[in-house]
């Protein structure tokens, strides 16, 4: 299936990409992190195309990975939830994520390794798209007093760019302000029977895990 276009909520046309689509490396809004990921995957496929042995390659392309943590040593994308709970985020920027649970992502990797149909395939592992304001609301609705510091107001784009001058984590996010990156994981669902859990379960389990590990 090639790139498709859908209409959602009366907001106009939003492109929804599948595994056949590679982003244009000349796009100015793409972060260095995404460029590095693209180059690494391209190199892997180029290497495999030159091989004639029995080894196969499957790549799994996740959304924003949240869920329970095993250690507080390396938080990665979970820092987003930690900052909300800690009150370090003074408002909700106009950023959105396609949430995927780390447990579901691990299950997808196992299915990709053990199913012969997955050999030579790219597989998207994404779930529901949520704006930061929606994530904050979800935390406040489910965590009670533990979410007292989670912001309820929104941050305009100009202020976000100003704050990013002093915060490296924010600096890497500003190119995505207002952008709705939408992808479909239909291929993984149909080919491998993969089914991600509800995003609310992922985010609340993530928050409770951060609390249990005394990150917040």
Structural notes for this entry:
This protein is α/β, with parallel strands linked by helices and 216 residues long. The chain has a single domain, classed as 3-Layer(aba) Sandwich (Rossmann fold), CATH 3.40.50. It is 39% helix and 14% strand. It is built from eight helices and eight strands, in the order E-E-H-E-E-H-E-H-E-E-H-H-H-E-H-H. It has helices at 32-49, 79-86, 102-114, 132-143, 157-164, 168-171, 186-192, 199-212, and strands at 4-7, 13-17, 59-62, 64-66, 96-101, 122-125, 129-131, 182-183. The strands form three sheets. The chain has a three-stranded mixed β-sheet with strand order 1-2-8, with no helix packed on it. Helix 2 (79-86) links the parallel strand 4 and strand 5 (96-101). Helix 4 (132-143) crosses helix 8. It is globular. Mean pLDDT is 89; it is low at 1-12.
Mind sketching the topology for me?
Blueprint: E1 4-7, E2 13-17, H1 32-49, E3 59-62, E4 64-66, H2 79-86, E5 96-101, H3 102-114, E6 122-125, E7 129-131, H4 132-143, H5 157-164, H6 168-171, E8 182-183, H7 186-192, H8 199-212
Parallel strand pairs: 2-8, 3-6, 4-5
Antiparallel strand pairs: 1-2, 5-7
Helix pairs in contact: 4-8
Could you name the key traits of this structure?
single chain, 216 residues, alpha/beta, Rossmann fold, 39% helix, 14% strand
The ordered string of helix (H) and strand (E) elements is: EEHEEHEHEEHHHEHH
Spatially, the strands of the biggest sheet line up as: 1-2-8
Rg over alpha carbons: 18 Å
Number of spatially distinct domains: 1
Which consecutive residue ranges, at least 5 long each, have pLDDT under 50? 1-12
Given the structure, what is the number of helices?
A: 8
């Amino acid at each position: 299936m090639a790139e498709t276009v859908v209409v959602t909520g009366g907001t106009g046309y939003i492109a929804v990409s599948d595994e056949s689509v590679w982003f244009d490396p000349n796009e100015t809004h793409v972060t260095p992190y995404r460029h590095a990921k693209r180059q690494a995957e391209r190199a892997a496929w180029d290497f495999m195309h030159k091989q004639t042995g029995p080894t196969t390659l499957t790549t799994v392309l996740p959304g924003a990975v949240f869920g329970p943590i095993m250690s507080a040593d390396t938080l990665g994308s979970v820092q987003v939830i930690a900052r909300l709970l800690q009150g370090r985020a003074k408002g909700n920027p106009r950023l959105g994520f396609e949430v995927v649970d780390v447990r579901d992502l691990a299950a997808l990797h196992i299915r990709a390794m053990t199913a012969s149909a997955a050999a030579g395939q790219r597989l998207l592992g994404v779930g529901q798209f949520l704006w930061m304001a929606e994530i904050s609301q979800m935390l406040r609705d489910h965590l009670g007093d533990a979410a007292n510091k989670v912001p309820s107001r929104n941050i305009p784009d100009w202020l976000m760019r100003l704050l990013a001058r002093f915060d490296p984590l924010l600096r890497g996010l500003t190119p995505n302000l207002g952008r709705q990156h939408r992808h479909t994981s239909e291929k993984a669902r149909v080919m491998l029977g993969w089914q991600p859990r509800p995003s609310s379960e992922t985010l609340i389990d993530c928050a409770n895990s951060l609390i249990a590990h005394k990150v917040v």
